[in-house]
Amino acid sequence: MSVTAPIQTGPGEANVDGYHSFRLGEFKFSRDEYFVYVEWPTGKHVMSADAFLRALQRDVAWQFFYGIVNFDGVVGTVNHYGTVDLFAGRYNDVYRKAELDHLENFSTALIKSTFEEMLDDWTNDGFDPFASPTETGSAFGIKRGNNRAAITRHRVTAARMVSMPGDEPLRTNDNGHPINRHFLDVPQDEPVKEAEPGFEAEVNAFNFFAYLSRSQVTWNPSVVSVCGDSLYCPTTEEYILPIIHGNDRVEWFIQLSDELIWQVEDRDTGAALAKVTMRPGDVAAMPADIRHQGYAPKRAMLLVWENADPDLPALISSGQLPSVPIVI
Ligand code: PHB
Ligand code: FE
């Protein structure tokens, strides 16, 4: 059965549902009430509009992240840290063997601005792509306003650590961070801090669980502490990670509360590799040659530990470093 052709629009002109189309090289993106269509010279693809917008939101907010951001098993981006590949079918064995895959490289500035415009045009009033499905309105229907406040919200990236003087602040009701409905039982008391005189700007501590209990977003690792290249990127999860992340380095996961199920696949072919169920206290290292997608039945706290060393992707792809953290 063929995919319904999207309604064609000229530059600057909206389709009958009120949405604009976007071009990047030979790729064309369009949406209607329910779906997003992606076309390239050798194929076309359809995704649900809500899943597409959740993935697009993360790609934009994370500046294309580490490695590969697959929107699903067909379409996605590869970050080359200065330029970005946009691909269809490149990491899908069936498309590759049929020679239907397509890949184009763009400057980060161009793909970022196009994706930002698309996210802005296609996100309706009341739909927050970062929120869990039960905490937001519908992505569907004809064009209905916008949700600029949600899609451009501040991403926490601490310079040293959340709560340090001049750095990212702690979260409170007053700065728009009430405790999430699933974390009402998390104690909110803060530690007593007694820095030696002269070290008040160097020593600090805060209640990490209380901080996370006030996260308004899902599947959005944010940098809360930095030590050289070591980044602590905690996040609260609910429903499904909207992207399938293809690693270009090892990442560590520490499960802080509740439960996550990870589906792990070969990064390049999509072949199924493993299912990992993580419960509080579980620690996993995700290898540099896999891709993964998480499922959270209830809101869960996860600590993602990243190594931001910019030399890692080349060291791993050239074989100078292994794809796993420990070779036994
Ligand atoms: C990941 O791909 O490693 C990842 C992304 C977003 C999350 C958690 C993990 O919220
Ligand atoms: Fe990942």
If you had to describe this structure to a student in words, what would you say it looks like?
This protein has 328 residues and is of the alpha+beta class. It has helices at 49-61, 93-97, 108-122, 148-151, 208-213, 312-317, and strands at 22-24, 27-31, 35-40, 43-48, 68-70, 75-79, 83-88, 102-107, 225-227, 230-240, 244-246, 251-255, 260-266, 272-278, 283-286, 290-307. The chain folds into 2 domains: 2-150, no CATH class; 155-215 and 218-317, Sandwich (Jelly Rolls), CATH 2.60.120.10. The strands form 2 sheets. Strands 5, 6, 7, 8, 9, 10, 11, 12, 13, 14, 15 and 16 form a 12-stranded antiparallel sheet that branches. A 4-stranded antiparallel sheet has the order 1-2-3-4. A hairpin with a 3-residue loop joins strand 2 and strand 3 (35-40). Helix 1 packs across helix 3 (108-122). Bound molecules: P-hydroxybenzoic acid and fe (iii) ion.
Core attributes:
alpha+beta, Jelly Rolls, 2 domains, twelve-stranded antiparallel beta sheet, four-stranded antiparallel beta sheet, 6 helices, disordered N terminus, binds P-hydroxybenzoic acid, binds fe (iii) ion
Biggest sheet, in brief?
12 strands, antiparallel
Can you write the helix and strand succession as a string? EEEEHEEEHEHHHEEEEEEEEH
How many E-type strands?
16
Report the CATH C-level class of the largest domain. Answer: Mainly Beta
Structural class: alpha+beta
- State the separation between the terminal residues, measured CA to CA: 49 Å
Poorly predicted residue ranges: 1-8
CATH superfamily of the largest domain: Jelly Rolls
In helices, the fraction of residues equals 10-25%
Kindly identify the CATH topology of the largest domain: Jelly Rolls
| Overall morphology | globular
Q: How many domains, in number, for the residues?
A: 2
- Mean pLDDT over all positions: 95
Q: Which cofactor or ligand species appear?
A: P-hydroxybenzoic acid, fe (iii) ion
Figure out the total of helices: 6
